[in-house]
Write a structure and sequence with these properties.
Elements: E1 2-6, E2 12-20, E3 26-30, E4 33-39
Organism: Fuscibacter oryzae
Protein name: Translation initiation factor 2
């Protein structure tokens, strides 16, 4: 499943969900790199 994370104030990464850390951050994989950051909340219109 694709997830989007924020790894800085202006940098977001979208990739395949790998796992969740104990501090609430999640890991996503893009090609051969794994990134860790806070998940961007999903906004769904009413």
């Amino acid at each position: 499943m694709l997830r989007t994370i924020s790894i800085g104030s202006c940098v977001s990464v979208q990739g395949l969900f790998v796992g969740q850390l104990s501090d609430g951050k999640i890991m996503v994989k893009v090609d051969d790199k794994t990134f860790v950051g806070r998940e961007v909340p999903v906004v769904r219109p009413n």
